Every structure is written in C-alpha cells, then in structure tokens.
C-alpha cells in the first residue's frame, strides 16, 4: 500500500507541475490575477507531495519490504539501520527520486520565501522551475519508477555494495544533490528574468542567496566526498581527477563564478548578460554531471548505480533545457541593456579576472573529462588523468589564488594602484617570507608548484583577513566575515594540498607480528592479526600500536573485510589524526610465510584540505545569513516605493 | 589599454562590452589551445600488450596497459610487497612489476589495467593497478575481453 501511495503522490505532483507551468504562462503572458494567486500554493503542494514520496520510499527501505523491486535489488534485511535509511538513495531510481524531491522542494521554497523579485519575474521563475521538473518527472515515472512491485516478493534482498556501507552515504549524496539541484533555481531565475526582461541589480540580489545555498551544499558535498573516498578506497589519495569527481567540481566552479559575478551585478549593475549566461551554464554542468555519473559512460572508481540505457534520457533533457535556455538567451540578449562601465583597476575588474580564470578552469576540466569520449569515436582509447589535470589546472588555480590576494583589497569603481600596493604589502611580505622558509627548511627539494602553493597560501591567508583591519569588528556586516572566512578557507585548503603532496612519507612492508616501523617520528608496532565479525561481514583485523617518544598514543586496527551480501572483499583503512597530520594505516594481503602486507603513510597537515573546505562552506553560510538579514531589512524599508528596473543598487552603500 | 582610452573619451558603452567579449573569447581560445597541447603530452594512451610492443613506447612515458594476468606468472619478491607478473592479450605478453597492495580482486586469470611506464629493458613498471572493484565493475577498456586460462587465448574486445 505504501508503494502505491508513493507512486500516486508522484503522479499528482507531476500533474501539479504541469498546472504550475500553465498558471505561470497565463499569469505572465495574460496577466491573469487568479493564476497569480494560485501559483504559489500549487508550487508548495508539489514540494510537499514529492517530499512525501521520498519519505515513503525511505519507509519501504526501513521496513525491508521485499515486494518492492528497488528494495529487493538494493537492500538486505540484515543491513544496519543507517544503511537501510541511506540505501534509499544509493541506487539509480532512489537517487532520481531524491533529485526530483529536492527540485520541487526548492521550487516550493522559492514560492514561499522569495520576496526580492518583482511579481511577474517571480511567477515566471516558478513556471521555469515547473518546466524543468516536468522533464524529470517524466524520466522518473516513465523510465525509472522507484515504487515498482516485485511479484512474487523476494525472500530477501541482494544487498548494498559494501563500499557504500559507510556513514558517508547518509550525507554525501543528499548534500551533493541539494547543491546540484539547487542550481536549477538559479537557472529558473535566469529564464524568468529573461522572459520578463528584468535582468538588473535587483535580480542579482534576489538570486544571490539561492546560489549561495546551492553552493554551500556543493562545497560540503565535495569536501565530504573527498574525505570519504580518501579513507574508504585505502589508496591514500584525496582527489583522483576521476570523471565522477570532476562532475561535482564543474558545477561548483560555475557556481563560484556565478556568485562573484552576481556580486558585481548587485553592487555595480554590470555583467548582466554574463551573469545570466553563468546561471544557465551552472545548471548545465549539474545536468552534465548527473549524465556522466548516471550513465556510467566514463570509467570511474566511484561509479555506482550506473545504467547506460537511461543516460540517453538525461542527455535528451540536457539538450532540451539547456538548448532552450540558450535559444531564449540568444533571442533576448539584445533586450538586456549593458550595465555600468568600470575601470581596469577596481574590484569589479578583478572579479572579471576571477570569472575568466574560473571559466577557463571549468572549460579545461570539461575538455579533459570528455576527451576520452571524443577519441573513442575515432577508435582511440585514451585516459586522461592526474598528469593532465595537475599540469594545467594546478597553475591556473594558483593564478586564481594570486588574484584572490589582490581582489578583496581593491575598492569598487576605481582604485589607485599605489594605494593598492600599500594594502597588499603585508600579504606580499608574508608570501616572500614563506618562500624563504620553504627553500631553507624543506628537508628535500620540492617542486615549483608546491612551493608556489605554500607562498600563495600564506599571501592569501594574510590578504583575506586584511579587509577586517582598521574596521569596527562589531559593526562589520556578517557577509564580510563570510567572505573573509571563505577566502581564508581557500588558503588553508591550498596549504594542506601543498603539504600533503610535498612532505608525505610512505612505508610499505611485509611484516611479522613483533616487527616495528619508524615513520615521521612515530613508532608503529605490529602486534598481530585476528579474525573478527560484524553484522554482515567478517574480517581479519591487525593490531598496530603507535607510540611517539616512548609513549603509546593509540592503537590502530585496520581490517581486510569480507562482506557476505553481495560477497565482496574491502579494505578498511585507519586514520590516526594528530594536530600536525594524519597517520594512515592499511592492512594488505596475507603471504604464504605468515607475513602480512602493511602500508603506512604519514601525511602532514592533510586534514587542512577538508578543514579548508569546511571553512569555505561556513563562510558561505555566514554570507547567506548576512545577506538575507540585510535584504529583509532593506526590503521592508523599501517596500512602499516600487523599485524601477534601472534603480541604483542599494548594496553598494551600506546604510 | 583600449578600455581605459574609450572610457575617458566618453560613454562608448558598446566598447566595454566588446572588450569583455573579446577577453572571454581570448580566454576560451587560449584555454582550448592549452588543453590540446596538454592532452597531446599528458593523455595516457591505452594499449594492449601486442599494441604496446608494436608502438615501441619510449621508456618513462605514462601509459595504461590492459590485459589478463597470465596464469602461473604471478610471483612475489622476497620483500613481500613487490610482485612480478605478465599481462597478456593472447598475441603479446608484457612482463610487469608493481610494489604495493594490490586491489582486492587482482588475481591470475582476471583482467587488470596497469598504469605506469616502461623501463629501459622493456619491463612495465606499474605505479597503480586498477582491477575489478566488485563483481559488476569492469574497467571500460576491458569490456568484452574473454580469457582462456589453459591456452592463454584472449579474444579482444571490439575496438
């Protein structure tokens, strides 16, 4: 019964989406007042219904209802609670239901909370959101019904891929999906503003919190996913330039560019057409990412729940929506008046540089990711991996970070280069000192890229807090703190990357019980191996006692695990975190003579990579709260007087 | 720069937009050129053993080598962590070595892709081995390859 209710809720929601599109059209094109009133409740009801459907699917997984095909194929009654719960989206159909649930709940949120847009643009935005949703409803209901029954019901399920049986599954896919799908709101805003010809600073201030929210989720999702792959795959790496990783990075790059260009549009009323274009590109990247991940067209170490036949459906949706939006853009771009001009030495000029660099990086990641597909058409099998990406993305990312040293210290409109040099001097000195320190202290020569990484990280760290100097800290707006923390997070992240790649140490050996190893001042004693059993797995578990200066600091118990449903061996590594880095321990195979393979890394300050990611997300959150509070205040003050399209932006001059 | 000149001359708004468009185009073209040259140098080509022999790959160049781990060829060195094995596609066989912990499903008679480079004496030094991840996972390049452990005959996938 639950499955049938879920399916009915989905069909009803799809019908409401159709109605929403119709209402938007009559309201915007005909000015129908009833339609204007009705559209918001319809959008909210649609969000509630898909939320209900998602909740029901989770309930089916929790109950291990083996008469539902999806549950039987992907779950198992012996599975721990959390993986039954999260297993609901650890498969194709469930993840597409999550997608559509997030999309229509985002639409409901726009209907409920968006106050900044003018009425017609707001309605057109809701119409665009309904139009995208319809395609995904069609995909879900016609090609990937998550509530399909299995007759007769299975005795028990086939289980979930053991690599996915990890707490990471509970929050990594949902946050990433909130980010991916959240960008659909930016897309709808852009389409709405193009339709009603309202591309202006007001539009930028309205779109910004939504982009921020999606971007925060993407940041968390990517950071969490990186850490998950780092400890789960047991290879000691945290980023593999795998197609699935690139698929999440590309929307993030586009959204980062969009955030900064929306700031220029909100503050200086420039970059209008560019901001619209980025909104479209950002969601296009989300869809390309989903296509790459779902279709399994590219080999990935993270590829799960792959189904090639369904990839073409997503590709078709991608073509329709992005093609449609670009056509609309081409038709309407001449109605988008050019915004204000600006000087070459100014904050906005530096943000243009930021956007250009981000877009070039995005383009290079996209080319590198799709290149194997292109060469395959001419019969060449090629894989594009870290050698390509590190060689070209690395320097560009460092250039972007160099721009970040200067950007926040520039004034809007026009700045004096000499005054700018004075302001950036502390950051430049910090960079120079770091260069000397690295050259003098490094135990072995390190490459120019890691050296530059350290230098840039130090300079960015100093420059990013510089906007707070000489200010009254209690009266500094929250979003300024957000910017400072996010930029500081970039510095922390870069420092972690440079440190990990320059100073990691590795020990690889076959050990007998009683053997000890020295690595970076840590003594690791191999005490032996014993068998152990979990709820749905058995394992061999090593006992490794780690001591420093004669004092035991911990016992690590890495495992070689064997899952029963489905039968799969996995490697469970152990990370021991200290303030100065992580000890990463992996148990390998048993040898015939009784020895065991052990692999141990010392990764200095590797945790900074994810701390940095967390800081970037936190900065985004502070900016979001700060912006929303500011808009609320201004919104209420400015409500009586209608704001005309060309009104000067308020954000530029804090009241 | 032109942007400065035109802005000082007067409100020639079209100019700035034009310059921005040109900048974006220049960045785009520069990016594509950069990508193409980097791809020529850095893309690792996938070879089967017989192709690798024919191609005479220079030592040190990063490539991917895919084939079946020949039955009876897998030997472990005395240090316990270095392995030597042969990758075969039935027509050609390449000796390879690897130091590290092999993937869980790396074994004789099953498919594997080795990333690495050839050394001067023609041995493939693998820096990374991709093997089947779970029962359903197969590296894309290996799809459809059949291996007979008795005769070492391999039917290659359709190119």
Strand content of chain A: 5-15%
Mean pLDDT value of chain A: 88
Estimated radius of gyration of chain A: 26 Å
Query: What does the average pLDDT of chain B come to?
Result: 75
Structural class of chain B: alpha+beta
The chain pair forming the largest interface, with residue counts per chain, is: A-B, 52 and 49 residues
Oligomer designation: heterodimer
Total helices of chain A: the number is: 17
Helix coverage percent of residues of chain A? 55-70%
- Strand order of the biggest β-sheet of chain B: 2-4-5-7-6
What would you say this structure looks like, in words?
The complex is a heterodimer of chains A (655) and B (159). The N and C termini of chain A lie far apart (57 Å). Chain A is globular and about 85 Å long. Chain A has helices spanning 2-30, 33-63, 69-74, 81-87, 92-113, 119-143, 168-196, 201-233, 243-268, 272-295, 308-332, 347-377, 386-406, 417-441, 448-465, 478-503, 608-638; strands at residues 382-383, 505-511, 516-519, 522-533, 537-548, 551-556, 559-563, 568-572, 574-578, 581-590, 596-604. Chain A has 17 helices and 11 strands. In chain A, strand 7 (559-563) and strand 8 (568-572) form a beta hairpin. In chain A, the strands form 2 sheets. In chain A, strands 3, 4, 5, 6, 7 and 8 form a 6-stranded antiparallel β-sheet that branches. In chain A, strands 2-11-10-9 form a 4-stranded antiparallel β-sheet. By secondary structure, chain B is of the alpha+beta class. Chain B has 3 helices and 9 strands. Chain B has helices at residues 2-9, 13-42, 49-55, and strands at 44-47, 63-69, 75-76, 82-88, 93-99, 111-118, 124-131, 146-147, 154-155. In chain B, a hairpin with a 5-residue loop joins strand 3 and strand 4 (82-88). The interface between A and B is large, with 52 and 49 residues. Strand 1 of chain A pairs antiparallel with strand 1 of chain B.
């Amino acid at each position: 019964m639950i499955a049938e209710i879920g399916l009915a809720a989905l069909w009803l929601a799809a019908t409401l989406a159709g109605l929403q599109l119709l209402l938007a059209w009559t309201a915007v094109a005909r000015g129908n007042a009833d339609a204007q009133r009705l559209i918001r409740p319809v959008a909210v009801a649609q969000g509630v219904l898909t939320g209900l459907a998602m909740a029901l699917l989770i309930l089916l997984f929790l109950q291990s209802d083996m008469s539902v095909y999806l549950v039987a194929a992907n779950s198992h009654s012996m599975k721990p609670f959390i993986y039954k719960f999260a297993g609901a989206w650890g498969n194709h159909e469930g993840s597409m239901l999550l997608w559509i649930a997030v999309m229509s709940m985002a639409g409901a949120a726009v209907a409920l909370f968006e106050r900044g847009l003018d009425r017609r643009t707001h309605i057109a935005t809701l119409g665009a959101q309904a139009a995208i949703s319809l395609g995904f409803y069609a995909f879900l209901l016609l090609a990937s019904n998550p509530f399909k029954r299995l007759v007769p019901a299975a005795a028990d399920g086939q289980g979930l891929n053991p690599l996915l049986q990890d707490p990471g599954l509970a929050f990594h896919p949902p946050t990433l999906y909130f980010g991916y799908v959240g960008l659909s709101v930016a897309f709808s805003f852009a389409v709405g503003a193009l339709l009603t010809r309202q591309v202006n600073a007001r539009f930028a201030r309205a779109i910004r919190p939504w982009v921020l929210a999606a971007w925060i989720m993407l940041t968390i999702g990517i950071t969490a996913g990186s850490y998950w792959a780092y400890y789960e795959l047991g290879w000691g790496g945290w980023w593999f330039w795998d197609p699935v990783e690139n698929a999440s990075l590309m929307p993030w790059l586009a959204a980062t560019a969009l955030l900064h260009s929306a700031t220029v549009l909100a503050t200086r009323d420039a970059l209008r057409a560019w901001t619209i274009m980025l909104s479209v590109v950002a969601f296009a990247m989300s869809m390309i990412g989903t296509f790459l991940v779902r279709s399994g067209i590219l080999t990935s170490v993270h590829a799960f729940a792959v189904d090639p036949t369904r990839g073409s459906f997503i590709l078709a949706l991608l073509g329709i929506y992005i093609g449609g939006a670009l056509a609309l853009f081409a038709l309407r771009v001449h109605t988008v008046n050019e915004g204000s001009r600006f000087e070459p030495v100014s904050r906005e000029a530096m943000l243009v540089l930021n956007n250009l660099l981000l877009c070039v990086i995005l383009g290079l990641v996209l080319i590198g990711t799709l290149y194997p597909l292109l060469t395959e058409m001419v019969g060449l099998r090629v894989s594009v991996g870290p050698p390509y990406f590190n060689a070209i993305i690395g320097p560009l990312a460092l250039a972007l970070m160099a721009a970040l040293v200067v950007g926040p210290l520039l004034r809007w409109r026009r700045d004096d280069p000499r005054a700018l040099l004075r302001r950036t001097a502390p950051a430049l000195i910090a960079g120079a000192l770091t260069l000397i320190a690295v050259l003098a202290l490094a135990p072995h020569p390190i490459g120019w890229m890691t050296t530059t990484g350290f230098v840039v990280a130090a300079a960015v760290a100093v420059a990013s807090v510089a906007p707070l100097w000489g200010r009254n800290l209690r009266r500094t707006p929250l979003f300024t703190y957000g910017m400072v923390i996010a930029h500081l997070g970039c510095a922390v992240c870069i420092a972690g990357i440079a440190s990990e790649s320059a100073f990691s140490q590795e020990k690889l050996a076959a050990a007998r019980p009683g053997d000890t190893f020295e690595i970076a001042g840590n003594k690791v004693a191999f005490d032996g191996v014993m068998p152990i059993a979990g709820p749905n797995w058995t394992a061999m578990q090593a006992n490794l006692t780690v001591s420093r200066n004669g004092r035991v600091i911990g016992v690590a118990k890495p495992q070689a695990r064997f899952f029963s449903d489905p039968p799969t061996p996995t490697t469970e590594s152990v990370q021991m975190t200290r303030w100065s880095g992580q000890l990463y321990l992996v148990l390998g195979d048993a040898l015939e003579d009784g020895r065991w393979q052990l692999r141990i890394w010392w990764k200095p300050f590797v945790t900074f990579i994810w701390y940095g990611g967390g800081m970037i997300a936190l900065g985004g959150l502070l900016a979001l709260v700060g912006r929303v509070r500011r808009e609320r205040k201004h919104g209420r003050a400015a409500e009586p007087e209608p704001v005309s399209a060309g009104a000067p932006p308020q954000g530029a001059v804090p009241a | 720069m032109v942007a400065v000149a035109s802005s000082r001359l007067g409100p020639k708004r079209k100019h700035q937009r034009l310059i921005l468009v040109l900048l974006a185009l220049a960045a785009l073209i520069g990016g594509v050129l950069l990508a193409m040259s980097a791809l020529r140098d850095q893309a690792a080509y996938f070879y089967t053993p017989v192709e690798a022999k024919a191609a005479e790959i220079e030592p040190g160049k990063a490539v991917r080598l895919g084939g079946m781990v020949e039955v009876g060829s897998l030997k472990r060195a005395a240090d316990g962590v270095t392995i030597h094995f042969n990758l075969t596609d039935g027509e050609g066989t390449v000796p390879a070595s690897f130091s590290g912990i092999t993937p869980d499903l790396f074994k004789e008679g099953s498919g594997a892709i080795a990333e690495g480079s050839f050394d001067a004496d023609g041995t493939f030094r693998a820096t990374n081995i991709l093997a089947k991840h779970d029962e359903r996972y197969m590296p894309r390049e290996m799809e459809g390859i059949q291996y007979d452990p008795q005769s070492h005959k391999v039917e290659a996938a359709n190119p």
